[in-house]
């Protein structure tokens, strides 16, 4: 018996594109976590819970709008904004009082919020899973190299680079991005020149959580929306941030590519052991580059 299955080029290309579309979701969520961890120095374990809330909000908004194309696009806009508003309330009410505390306390505090958000999701939406349809224009598939490729996956492949370029522009070309970088290095110096560092941190935190909500809204049409979907994503995104380089947007993209593609190739080659492939890749990267693939920018 052959150890490796006989894989056609078409099947390999198809799986590669599927892995790239999964990379988009991982990158969007991981980039938000990287911003928060890099600037605020908060290991926000609740980031995955906000991703889950974004998916549930997208389902609710799309259903309330009658579904279809209008419901989908409305959900894609309003669900991340809803997550951003929740994160702003949490940050202004609680997090802003804890920035000077030790990291272990912040870690435990954000972990507590995963429990709170989990109970809130169960209270509002119950324990049953939900599902959300993509708009008609994004249903079906294209013919790529002789095999079908879902239109929605192609849509995700377009969204990923747009988000990456937008984040690069935000962090490198805007005033808030430059101030955030300075505050991450020396917050006392930034405060000394008259800048309200607390609101800078609040802005970065909200942007990071908005990205978590956006990732949840984008993934909603591709899988069941259920409690517990936050557990896997938070582990994966933390690993992506670590191997990419703290606060480095392009590092998060590179880490997401490694994680998404190794997972896709693993499913194609050894589906029974596919879950192992991304973690083997992470271990290999950390052995060769303990500080991450790209330089930390904060």
Your description of this structure?
The protein has a two-stranded antiparallel sheet with strand order 1-2. 71% of the residues lie in helices and 3% in strands. It is mainly alpha-helical. Helix 1 packs antiparallel against helix 8 (197-219) and helix 3 packs antiparallel against helix 8. The model has no long low-confidence stretch (mean pLDDT 86). It is built from 11 helices and 2 strands. It has a single domain, classed as Orthogonal Bundle (ABC transporter involved in vitamin B12 uptake, BtuC), CATH 1.10.3470.
Q: Give me the count of strands.
A: 2
Number of helices: 11
**Structural class assignment:** mainly alpha
For the biggest β-sheet, the strand order reads 1-2
CATH third-tier fold name = ABC transporter involved in vitamin B12 uptake, BtuC
Give the overall form: globular
Please indicate the percent range of residues in DSSP E strands (runs of 2 or more): under 5%
Q: Which parts are unreliable, with pLDDT below 50 for 5 consecutive residues or more?
A: none
Number of domains: 1
The CATH C-level name is Mainly Alpha
Q: How many strands, which pairing sense, and closed or not: the largest β-sheet?
A: 2 strands, antiparallel
Helix content: over 70%
Amino- and carboxy-terminal Cα gap: 51 Å
Mean pLDDT, rounded to whole units? 86
- Report Rg: 20 Å
Under the CATH scheme, the architecture is Orthogonal Bundle
Helix-strand topology string: HHHHEEHHHHHHH
